[in-house]
Every structure is written in structure tokens, then in C-alpha cells.
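Folds abound. Consider this:
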Amino acid sequence: MADPLFKIGVLGATGFIGAPYRAEIRNCREAAIVAVCARREDLLAKAAEEDGAQLTTRNWREVIAHPEVNLVLVLTPD
């Protein structure tokens, strides 16, 4: 597979909003989830496994600073 155009960091990866978005991204050939961030570590580990994410963290700053992330989705509640 070619290197994806969009290398995505997802903030709020495991919540009501984040989970369905992540599922859609997994079906996109031009995108890959590189980093996931959420408060619940138990759900975060599962999300990273599903997505093949390199980074799992509870700190959004780590996602923003990740050298491969070129697009950040903020999928936290209003």
C-alpha cells in the first residue's frame, strides 16, 4: 500500500463521536490513523489496535506534536 495522503491524529477517539468517524477512516485508502487520544485507557488500547495507531495517549499535545500527523480531528463533545 502506498503511503497515505492523510496521517490522522484523533482527539476523542473512543467516544460517541470518535468511534464512528474512526470506522469511516479505516475504509479510506488515502488516510491512516497514526495517533489516538482519549481519557479512558481501556477503550484507548482497543481503538489503537483496531486502527493500527502508532501512538496512544491521554495527552492531546502528544498527538499535535507527533511528527507524522498531518491532520488532527477533534471529535470531542461540544
Summary: The two ends are 36 Å apart (CA to CA).
